[in-house]
């Protein structure tokens, strides 16, 4: 056994998951009863394994430098074991790095770039997403109101939680910013009798939801527009507004302007609910150990995460007052594992759906992404916050046009009593 093999054998014996590794030379080291078998095809990938660069190992898998046998859950436990430290701490940014990230965020989030980045992700294949999402294709954190809920039930519970937090009433004019495949839009129209408008930059989602509106006979009560949130008409005030799984694409440098735009879209006393992923560290612009770079390259180009403390500051700078803040981090870990498990059960169908060399790369990337993010939420490296807000009153030129007090109940239990 070579010195490299001996060192690797010693390291493998310390892992919590029995693991076997086949080296580029063909030599195999590790446990004889392994639950995970890594097949390393080049020395660069072997070095990345030794350094615990999980993101680069994910990239090697996508590009063919690494293969594995075993479950995604065991593989993620292995990835956690080999990390040299917290990926949150590894990505902690100093003032210069933060300044560079801010300047980069400005130019990378023009309307044209945002449209390209959204379509890169969401227009991959509707049929592919349908394989592992719930029947309503809700592509955001579910809400496991009861422990025994399955994914479909938890997604309906989430849709209803959003509607209840917003106090949707019959006849309300409701705006869904980044409406996805229309889960919230349709739920609100059918269960709360609102007039709802959804917007998206995804051509696939736009076409799908408009077909869905016709199939359900909701013309006149629901509509889906293909447009950027910055182009929304501010002269047509909505009663309520939701932005779900969208503000991660806005960019940190644009967050204050984004929240200000949302505030101008609702009437005096109107409610806004922002639901999105936040970073686990206060000063890290992305996850370290190559994880953030992997997501940027293969999954969400242009995606940027912000700690909830900074989100609330940007929200206030945008003229909004936070009314309720809830962290659903454990719910998203369970959601992502449900997505990952569903994809793993349908790998053959997914391969047939994405039937090209690039499609196979996308499939491998999503296998790593879904399971890796589930692990990230479990460890608290990333989080999911729902923030309910309304436009601030004090200091506005039109202050006297606003209600003299808060226009939502003073007790939180209105959110949780019953359901639609």
Automatic annotation (TrEMBL):
Please give the Gene Ontology molecular function terms for this protein: methyltransferase activity
Q: What are the record keywords, sorted?
A: Lipid metabolism, Methyltransferase, S-adenosyl-L-methionine, Transferase
A Pfam family recorded for this sequence: CMAS
Q: Does the keyword Transferase apply?
A: yes
Asked if Transferase is a keyword of the record, the answer is: yes
Q: Which residues form a coiled coil?
A: none
BP-aspect Gene Ontology terms:
methylation
Q: Record's family? A: Belongs to the CFA/CMAS family.
Q: Which PANTHER family does the record associate with it?
A: CYCLOPROPANE-FATTY-ACYL-PHOSPHOLIPID SYNTHASE
Q: What is this protein called?
A: Class I SAM-dependent methyltransferase
Origin species, per record, is Alcaligenes endophyticus
Organism lineage: Bacteria, Pseudomonadati, Pseudomonadota, Betaproteobacteria, Burkholderiales
